[in-house]
């Protein structure tokens, strides 16, 4: 039964391919003498083939029946209409409807495989019907839509060159993030037919003002029910409108152009990640009316100092109750303030600009992933006060060349220095009893390592893929080395063949 169904599906697919190939050949023949024209098969089945016929930026989505006699005589008229540069978009659309070649919708299943074509000047018109799915046009500056009833989620997301868009009056809904990160889009008129606009539809655009029953943008900020939802601007200075009481979670996330922001006294709460990744934001004044600031609200900004009842930033580090919570700076060198006892999990995660960090002797704990993916970090001195280095603490610090683990540490946790590809020297103290799973995996520049006799357990892949590791020393006897519990593939693909002990050598 299954084989029969598979054969039937294969037959249908073959028929569709043949019909599509015939339709493609016939359309291309008509277009052969038409400049700046193209044709793309979007999808097909045994009943019809969906095609995009484009002439100088005019894109028409049509359904061509399997019986070509039903449309071949209409095709020249369609091409002639699409070629008419004197007509407006509305006039072209009306003329296409009169030709009576069925205008079609791009199937959702094909939308990611299909791209619209703009003219040489970046102009694009689209004549179709139904839902406009996520079809990212290339090099487009101006878009006019006709026949569309719904603009789907992410439809034009990240079309960074898009400057203008005309939305037809038949559209009833604009999906989530439909125009997000269209950084050149300065203005848009939303027709009254639209009854729903999704979250973040215009986040990261360059729109200063917009007034619609479903969305208000003021001073470059999308506002609803007294909440600043997101930034729709590329301005370097933003003044959050008076009357706003809350800055929403991730509202200004990754607004790279933002340098200064004015927060009115009406604001009482700043949400999690509200300004995260605003790498140009150097200063902010938080009014006393604010009583709550969410986690990581200013992570990845460029703020050196801030003092507020809800938040303290010192030396570019957010500190609370003796814990360095996260980095709010783009500085290449960070000095963690004295008095800090703990560096929180992921505190400096992906701080790409960080080259050097000074950790005070008050610190006793470095959290999980604390410096994970700090790819520019070259030097770090871990003080003897530190008793715990969390898993993945320095994972992916690809510029780190040397590290000395203090004698206060007893365990090197899992992935602590994984993929530190520049690490050449590591000093493991005699206090260490266990080397965690993947602890030094992928440290491809590590040539030698001295493992103290205090170590009784080495977990799987601890030194796996350390391809330059040719010299392994153990501070105890061969008998002690053999007693060490070793996880699977702990030394996979290292170049060393043996370990040198105090009384001889033994194979790895």
What would your notes on this structure say?
The chain is mainly beta and 508 residues long. The chain is 11% helix and 28% strand. It contains four helices and 38 strands. Strands 1, 2, 3, 4, 5, 6, 7 and 8 form an eight-stranded mixed beta sheet that branches. The protein has a seven-stranded mixed beta sheet with strand order 9-10-11-12-14-16-18, with no helix packed on it. The two termini are 56 Å apart.
Short description:
This protein is mainly beta and about 500 residues long. The protein contains 4 helices and 38 strands. The strands form 8 sheets. Strands 1, 2, 3, 4, 5, 6, 7 and 8 form an 8-stranded mixed β-sheet that branches.
Features of the shown structure:
8-stranded mixed beta sheet; 11% helix; 38 strands; 4 helices; 508 residues
């Amino acid at each position: 039964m299954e084989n029969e169904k598979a054969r039937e599906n294969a037959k249908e697919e073959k028929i569709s391919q043949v019909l599509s190939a015939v339709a493609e050949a016939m359309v291309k023949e008509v277009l052969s003498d038409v400049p700046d024209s193209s044709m793309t098969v979007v999808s097909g089945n045994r009943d019809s083939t969906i095609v995009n016929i484009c002439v100088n930026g005019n894109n028409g989505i049509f359904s061509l029946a399997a019986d070509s006699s039903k449309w071949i005589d209409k095709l020249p008229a369609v091409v002639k209409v699409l070629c008419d540069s004197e007509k407006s978009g509305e006039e072209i659309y009306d003329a296409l409807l009169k030709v009576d070649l069925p205008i079609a919708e791009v199937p959702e299943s094909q939308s990611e495989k299909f791209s619209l074509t703009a003219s040489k000047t970046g102009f694009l018109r689209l004549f179709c019907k139904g839902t406009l799915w996520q079809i990212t046009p290339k090099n487009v500056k101006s878009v006019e839509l006709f026949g569309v009833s719904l603009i789907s989620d992410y439809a034009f997301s990240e079309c960074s060159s898009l400057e203008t868009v005309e939305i037809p009056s038949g559209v009833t809904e604009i999906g989530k993030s439909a125009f997000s990160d269209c950084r050149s889009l300065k203005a848009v008129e939303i027709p009254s037919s639209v009854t729903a606009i999704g979250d973040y539809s215009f986040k990261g655009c360059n729109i200063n003002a917009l007034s619609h029953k479903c969305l208000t943008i003021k001073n470059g900020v999308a506002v609803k029910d007294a909440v600043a939802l997101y930034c729709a601007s590329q301005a370097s200075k933003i003044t959050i409108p008076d009357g706003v009481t809350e800055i929403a979670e991730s509202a200004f996330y990754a607004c790279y152009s933002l340098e200064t922001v004015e927060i009115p006294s009406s604001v009482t709460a700043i949400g999690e990640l509200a300004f995260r990744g605003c790498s140009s934001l150097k200063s902010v004044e938080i009014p006393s009316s604010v009583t709550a600031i969410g986690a990581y609200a200013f992570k990845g900004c460029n703020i050196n100092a801030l003092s507020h009842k809800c938040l303290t930033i010192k030396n570019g580090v957010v500190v609370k109750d003796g814990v360095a919570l996260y980095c709010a700076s783009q500085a290449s060198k960070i000095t963690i303030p004295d008095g800090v006892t703990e560096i929180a999990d992921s505190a400096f995660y992906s701080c790409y600009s960080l080259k050097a960090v000074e950790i005070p002797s008050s610190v006793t704990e470095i959290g999980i992933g604390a410096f994970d993916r700090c790819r520019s970090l070259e030097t770090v001195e871990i003080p003897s006060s530190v008793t715990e280095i969390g898993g993945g603490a320095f994972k992916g610090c690809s510029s780190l060349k040397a590290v000395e683990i203090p004698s206060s540490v007893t365990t090197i946790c899992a992935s602590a220095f994984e993929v530190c590809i520049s690490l050449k020297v590591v000093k493991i103290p005699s206090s260490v009893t266990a080397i965690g799973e993947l602890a030094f995996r992928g440290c491809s520049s590590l040539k030698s390592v001295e493992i103290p006799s205090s170590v009784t357990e080495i977990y799987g892949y601890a030194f796996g893929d350390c391809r330059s590791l040719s010299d392994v020393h153990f501070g105890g006897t061969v008998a002690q080395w053999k007693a060490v519990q070793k996880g699977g593939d702990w030394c996979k693909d290292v170049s060393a063949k043996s370990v040198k002990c105090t009384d001889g050598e033994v194979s790895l």
